[in-house]
Amino acid sequence: YGNLGELGLYEAGFEAKSLGAVLAASSINTPKPSTIIKAIKEASLSVRGSNEGKLLEPFIRDWTKSERDQVIGVIRQGYVEGLTNQQIQQRIRGTRANKYLDGILATTARHAEAVVRTAVQHVAITAKLTTWAANDDIISGFMWLSTLDGATSSQCRSLDGQEFALNKGPRPPLHVRCRSQVLPILKANLDFIGGGTRASKGPSGVGQVKADLSYYEWLKRQPKTFQDDTIGKARATLLRDGGLTAERFAELNLNRNFKPLTLSEMRQKEPEAFKLAFGE
User: Fold this and answer.
1) Which residues contact 150 (CB under 8 A, 6 or more apart)?
2) By the 8 A CB rule, do 68 and 55 touch?
3) How far apart are the C-alpha atoms of 212 and 214, rounded to whole Å?
4) What is the DSSP letter of 261?
5) Distance in angstroms (rounded) separating the CA atoms of residues 209 and 225
6) Collapsing DSSP states into helix, strand and coil, what is residue 46?
7) What is the pLDDT of residue 112?
8) Which of 12, 36, 58, 213 has the fewest beta carbons closer than 10 A?
9) pTM of the predicted protein model
10) For helices 56-80 and 85-93, what crossing angle results, to 10°?
């Protein structure tokens, strides 16, 4: 937890300074270092799948064990197949002709990067939320902010723009390599992003759009082919022709536990929209 703990402390301090600057206030509370470290250790990750609900330390440890087991498995399999040491090493390192990208080490390197990115994001988000909770006299909750491009996950697309109480709802990272962020919701009608812009990347390249534009509102403005490629032809047709608002479409995509719904499950919730979109 050495470097990650330092990151958490830095993030908490930076967040407190940012709040003070925006609100021109000198009474912003910065949580004690022990409080930040405790939160980082005890806050479970929202990452879905086999890692769901794990704490940070087991998450890192289990990924490390998995990568080590893969290398051992390659060695064992090579021995069973009667490969030479050089052949086994080649399977692990990869081949020069493929710039060593076809070996098990290339895979473990990519996995290691994913673990680092996910762990760093978890620490940063936890530090932010802990700082905001220490200032709940001015902060009532947080807003989920997803990346506006074609690579955003189905969960993050549907959560974009949703608001949650500080101790409620999901929080990033929702999956490995999650890029979503959170913004504080201030009391007294203050707003960090009011009137601002946010980055987006569509088929025409990188641009700026209004900060309060949700993911599916943004997607509705993109070309049909981009919509089809991003969320699939059936969902894109429902978004375009189902008579649904972007907000309602986002709600349809997730269940109460924020897990993706199938098209069949979505049809049960909004049969009229499917009739309108597909003529059923």
Assistant:
1) 201, 202, 226, 229, 230
2) no
3) 6
4) P
5) 20
6) coil
7) 67
8) 58
9) 0.77
10) 150
